[in-house]
Amino acid sequence: MKNAEVLKKIKDQLHNGGYKLTPQREATVLVLLQDQKTHMSAEEVYMKVKEKSSDIGLATVYRTLEILTDLKIVDKVTFTDGLARYDLRKEGAKHFHHHLLCIECGKIEEVEDDLLSGVEKIVEEKYHFLVKDHRLTFHGICSSCQKKHSQEDSEKLSKLHDVIE
Amino acid sequence: MKNAEVLKKIKDQLHNGGYKLTPQREATVLVLLQDQKTHMSAEEVYMKVKEKSSDIGLATVYRTLEILTDLKIVDKVTFTDGLARYDLRKEGAKHFHHHLLCIECGKIEEVEDDLLSGVEKIVEEKYHFLVKDHRLTFHGICSSCQKKHSQEDSEKLSKLHDVIE
DNA sequence: GTAATTGCAAATTCTTTGCACGGTC
DNA sequence: GACCGTGCAAAGAATTTGCAATTAC
Prior knowledge:
The structure is a homodimer.
Chain A: H1 3-16, H2 23-34, E1 40-41, H3 42-51, H4 58-70, E2 74-78, E3 84-88, E4 98-102, E5 108-111, H5 117-127, E6 130-141, H6 143-164
Helix pairs in contact in A: 1-2, 2-3, 3-4
Chain A binds a DNA duplex through helix 2 and helix 4.
């Protein structure tokens, strides 16, 4: 689905929710659309909107993000740093996607696969809990940090060889 | 494992980490031990410690909770309200347990089952991400809120019957 | 026209920090 | 007596709110 279509759809959702379509709200949605992988904080969204010439206040960004969260157009996530970040929901995604948070470099990768349907079934049956959504984040070491490690290791090893030789 | 034993173990961990065992730290750990299901915020821990006669400053609670988090004795979690909460790690648990957060009454239930080992394998193989820990929270409706609903429904239905009769 | 929305600044909330004092080995 | 830990109060960071001016429909 193209960005223009997605934007159109979001506009409709705002209307249906009884909200007006202001330039500030449109600019905010556009920024979220163009930068879907970065998990921006409110401050970052605010900066990006200002960059694009559109003038906006930080409070308006917070208010807009809250509306979008209520309408389930974006999801609010908080990782270990305690800062709220905002993620556009993927088109047609029933559930929130998952995250891989690297504890070394801080990078956040996204996982779109639906990994939890089996797990949800267990939760519903065993705990009689009606699952509506979920938040899943893995903490660990990303592939590039792993490579960095093995490189360091082999360097140490070759130094060791130098000493022995 | 008994609380006394767990406390002893935590004392050792503090010592090994090069930290002293002050009355304030001991009181904080005791509060966490006695109230394992409530997911207390720093403020709540502070209040509980004060209740138990032990005098303590809020800053000390924050500092103690940070140490305990670093030592992986407690886990810091942030749910949707953005407030940091602290959970004692279960004895011998490799991984953090999961949570069921009711979107109606706000109650948080814990799930101890290891539901994710299969999912972690997929993540490691497909994304080459070395998993160290995870955070999983389901958002939904708890069993008692579900019951409340069906009760309301049957009440409405019986009123409807009254009208018809 | 009018009710919703905005921007600003002030207020709030949660958390961290600086520093003088007190306790411990 | 050096050093770690504490309490307090002040600072800081993130977010929310009150209000007068402005705007979308």
